[in-house]
Amino acid sequence: MRAVGLDGFSKGWVAVAIDGDQRTISFHPDIADALARRFDRTGIDIPIGMTDDGTRACDLSARARLRPHTSRVFTGARRWLWLEFSDPDKANAEAERRGQTKVSRQLWHIGKKIMEVDAFMRAHPARDIREVHPELVFLRLNGGKPLAPKKSEEGDALRRRLLKRAGFRELDRWLTEARIGCGAKRDDVLDACAVALAAHEPHGCVPNGRAPRDAHGLPMQIWY
Asked: 142: how many CB neighbours lie within 10 A of its CB?
């Protein structure tokens, strides 16, 4: 099983690959470059599949599992937000007009990456590409116990321990030497590692069973 986990950052994507006993990290400007090498399964920390009003059952289930840290799940991704608007205030005015929830600034700013993945998925429907939420993976690795915020000293240290226990022996080097000059942050690397684990050996998903599909046939299901 060759699997890769992707996490976005300001200048592109962090890719962590698991191929047998080998684990590698690389940095790429776009999804096409990150997935130029064929993998059996890909996990991506980005919303895949969208509804017109931004409501997805998988987001609600993920939030329920991550309580009390529900803000770790960004909700409300809608294609029309980024297809029709370049300004978040105008997009939110239209959302209000439609009787929908507003989009958060955090979600708005990853809109370009959401649409990049959306286009890639629709162009490559046969590839096994799954949405993964790293916090659900870390929750599983931590025995179901909630974790401190990932950017806190305590949260960073715990996530590193969990990943090393899961086989990432080169993690300290990846967090120092490997990411120098690329623009990726520590938590981007940690999240990509967690996503790779879920891609390589999925332990479950929300919702369970057959994935609901959006209007373009994309699955709306989060793996961990």
From this structure: 14
Token code pair at residue 103 = 């989009």
Distance CA 114, CA 126 (A): 19
Query: Nearest to residue 150, comparing CAs of 191, 90, 200, 115?
Result: 191
Helix, strand, coil abundance in the chain, percent, nearest 5: 40, 15, 40
Question: Would you call 20 exposed, middle or buried from its count of C-beta atoms within 10 A (0-12, 13-18, 19+)?
Answer: exposed
pLDDT tens-digit profile of 193-221? 999 999 999 999 999 999 999 999 999 99
CA 134-38-162 angle, to 5 degrees, is 25
- Determine the pLDDT at residue 112: 97
At CB < 8 A and 24+ separation, what contacts does 59-65 make? Answer: 59/222, 61/206, 61/207, 61/222, 62/133, 62/136, 62/206, 62/222, 65/136, 65/139, 65/206
Q: Note the pLDDT of residue 7.
A: 98
Look at residues 37, 12, 48 and name the one whose alpha carbon lies nearest to residue 218.
Answer: 48
Interval 114-133: pLDDT, tens: 999 999 999 999 999 999 99
